[in-house]
Amino acid sequence: MDETILRDVKNLLAQVLHDPGAGQRLRDEDDLVMGLGLESLQMIEFLLSVETHFEVALDFEQIDMSTLGSVRQFAALVEELLGAQGKARARG
Amino acid sequence: MSSSRPRTSVKLDAKSLAELMRKMQNRSEAQRNIAREPTWAEPLPREVGVQLTYRCNLRCVHCYQWNEAGLFQPFAPEQQRDELPLPVLERVLTQTAEARSKLYVWGGEPLLHSQFDEAAALIARFGRAVNLCTNGLLIEPHLEALRALGPGLVLFVSVDGLEPQHDAMRGRGTFAKVARQLEAVLAEKRAGRFAGEVSLSCMVADATIGHLAEIAAWAERLGVNSLYFQYPWFIGPETARAMDAVWADRLSWLGPLVNGAGSWHSYTHAISPGLVPALQEEVAALAGRTFGIRVLFQPELRPDELPEFIGGGARPAEGRTLCLAIANRMEVLADGRACSCKFFPEFIVGDVRESSVAELWHGQRFRELRAAMRQLGLMPICSKCTVLYQNGA
């Protein structure tokens, strides 16, 4: 796991939660829905900010309660997409 | 963007998350397709707005349809009584079966349709998700029909404050009546006999400013799903004139203006500018609170956007720059004509009594309209369109 991706995901969550200090406090295992309590509009805002920040196109239908089950798990999804889409871009 | 949003203790569940992700996927794909081909549209509309009838049993002071300056006032009496015939509704449902298009049912007051129960049964037979916008006065007589629409139904009931504010805007005695009906349907829901959801829409207006917190607390006690505080759709004279110019220059080929002037001149109800600071304070105070239901402002204006928006300006809120509705939504008016825009019946693309939904959706008129609108970007009147905020980017 690229730790910078994990850190950036936490910072984006902190922005959505309007808690600037949260980026430091969030734990890798925090559940985005059940633990951090992201509601629907916060979720939209967070996922759109992930797309903008990482310049990656999320496959939203791949995202479910399990993908959002921990910050680390979600960051792993971003890393995987960055790898796949980066390779596609490099090939294109 | 979310700084004006009250917090909620309601947690997303797996079903709501899946629905949300489906919407985001659709939106994302639409944006990519439009970037590649500006006139792109879905194979069939994902949502069809159905204006069941123009008639309404209220004359609310803020209504762009039926207040003194309302759009429907100059209509001939027979046109005012227009309602969508059931065979036409059935045609629309049949022709959108492949897409299972969601319905947005409204009016006028949709429960006033002379065959509402039959219309609901028809929709239930096609198994469609329905958002139904009502003033709530006739819920109980139609409860069985509404029940048949199942868990896919969301009732959006207009309640403009508690009794003094609501009655001032909607007519004496109406709050008590709608509150009684809401309590009845919510009791049915708690008992497991009504599977739909019930949400409230409340106008932010001179009468409701200063009472938003107590309205939200009442909605929370009532146990509705969500409360939407709706900013008025006031289109100021300058914005309306700017739209007149856009119409004359680029869109007049669509046909005559409604009532000879343009429907956008009917959106006249506004908040008094002197109340803006009080409203800004109230919105900020609400943003610091957590409710057991979802409490939302529509659109989600930043404090600095508020004066221009409620002053009738043309600048869209929430950074919106793209209408997705012309690529995924069609409106059917009570007289059977089809329209690209929910709120402005000048944008006619044909008639569902004469052509199929697919023919209209991919027809020359709609394609030319999409091309013109993509060239224009958002029009001056688009800033007040709720669809832009629910379904734009």
SSE class of chain A: mainly alpha
Average pLDDT, all residues of chain A: 89
Give the number of helices of chain A: 4
Poorly predicted tracts of residues of chain A: none
Q: What is the N-to-C order of secondary-structure elements of chain B (H for helix, E for strand)?
A: EHEHHEHEHEHHEHEHHEEHHEEEHHH
Number of helices of chain B: 15
Which labels suit this protein?
heterodimer, A: 92 residues, Non-ribosomal Peptide Synthetase Peptidyl Carrier Protein, Chain A, B: alpha/beta, two-stranded parallel sheet
What does this structure look like?
The complex is a heterodimer of chains A (92) and B (393). In chain A, 59% of the residues lie in helices and 0% in strands. Chain A is globular. With 92 residues, chain A is an all-alpha fold. Chain B starts with 6 loop residues before the first strand and ends with a helix. In chain B, the strands form 2 sheets. A 10-stranded mixed β-sheet of chain B has the order 9-7-6-5-4-3-2-10-11-12. A two-stranded parallel sheet of chain B has the order 1-8. Chain B has helices spanning 14-36, 77-80, 86-95, 116-126, 143-147, 163-170, 174-190, 212-222, 237-251, 276-287, 306-310, 325-328, 357-361, 364-376, 386-390; strands at 7-8, 47-51, 102-106, 130-134, 153-158, 197-203, 226-230, 290-291, 294-298, 329-332, 337-339, 348-351. Chain B has 393 residues and is of the alpha/beta class. Chains A and B meet through helix 3 of A and helix 1 of B.
